[in-house]
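step=predict obj=Polysaccharide biosynthesis protein n=465
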Amino acid sequence: MSDDTIRLVTIGRIFRRRRRLLTLLALVGALVGYGASLLFPPSYTTSASVLLPGQWEERELLTQVEIATSSEVVDRAAATLRWTGVSGTELRDHVGVKVADGNIIKISGTADTPERAQRLSDHVAQQFVTYAARIAGDNTAPEAATGLDALRKKVEETNRRITDLAEAADPGQTVESVQARTELEKLRTALAEAMKKLEEADPATDKPGMVVMGPAARPTGEAPPTRMQLIVGGALLFLLLAIIGHLAAARVNRRLRTAPEIAAALGSVLLGTVDVPGERPAHRPEGAGPRARIRRILGLDTRWDIPTPQRSGDEASRRIRYRRVCARLRNRLPGPRRLLVVVPEGDEIARRAAGQLVAEAKSDPSPGSSSGGHPMLRVVEVSVSHPMVPDRDTESGALVVLSAGSWTAGELAGIAEACADAGHEVVGIVVTGAVRARPTRSADRPPENATLALAVPVHATGGSG
């Protein structure tokens, strides 16, 4: 798993095999989101629209946005609202301004109640229009308007004087009189064009005044994040963290998954691989205690990072694998011997496979043998954290049976050292895996005494047994 690419099938496997744990973590995340919603009071947001008639460039609109959020506008709005304990600086954090399509500026206000949010938006919009009009000079430059009117009167008097001069000129058709009248007409035209340009440049007639497009609508719902959003977000966050945690744990997992790696860690040879039906046994000795019950309820007692068991052949084909392992084991030994079948404690699949090996060794199906062809096997479970194998007594050798992907190289090396310390040579290794069993034929089932024998292993206590 540590070298595999994370695929959707891996995520699906996590959801299938850890659904109870993921459901519990999602509920915890939802409770955390609910608690967060209690710490943050609900807020409401609404906006008022201000229309800017005429032609406006983008930089001019951005300038108006800065004006709307300036301290001058917000402080004036705070003074008109007269909210206790709320200054203009604090109010500025609850005001937002943005440019919409069609030269419209939207001024939004956020407050703890719908009424206060509506009042905040309306007051800021009104103060913005008033302040922008003052900057444009609508109300603060009466002397400029007076000067412009005086200039118009002066131009009119000049035009009348030009007309008098043209009439007083020599009515004859002399060159001098024609040139004089032509120059006077040019002067009249120049004055008219200058006056037209002056009127077009008048700021009072450049852009019409801004208009507030009605009062802000009273909000009917909370502004995000709402309580429901916090609850859902907390559940999704915890669910995502749980999945990431599973993937990270699988990435750093150093458990051996291939038979050659397992054989190298134990320093022995591989005798073969066998299959065990993947159904859970009815009795689980390791399921005692409240911690084990909690792990079983949450589904933590089963591995999630192993692939879904493949469908195997019938029971007869599985027994053939066990018989071949027994035959290879018999061929490696000089004569009939008693061996310990060492199974790591907690490896349920290996324990069941070891019991089946014991049953096959006792059945001794080889022709011409009188129960002395196969070695005599006795199953012992060894703790991986503190491995202890019974001392050499009637048994002289160890056969290690374990499932793939369950143990690290260090743990297997500890088992090999415990076997050597007890005087047992590891004569072989059998790797087992879970499969989905097919319906079996009654003729291929093992004897009843063999089935009972494989269910009762002997736990190692450090002495011979």
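step=describe
Strands lie at 44-51, 95-100, 104-111, 211-212, 270-277, 338-344, 376-382, 398-403, 426-435, 458-459.
step=end
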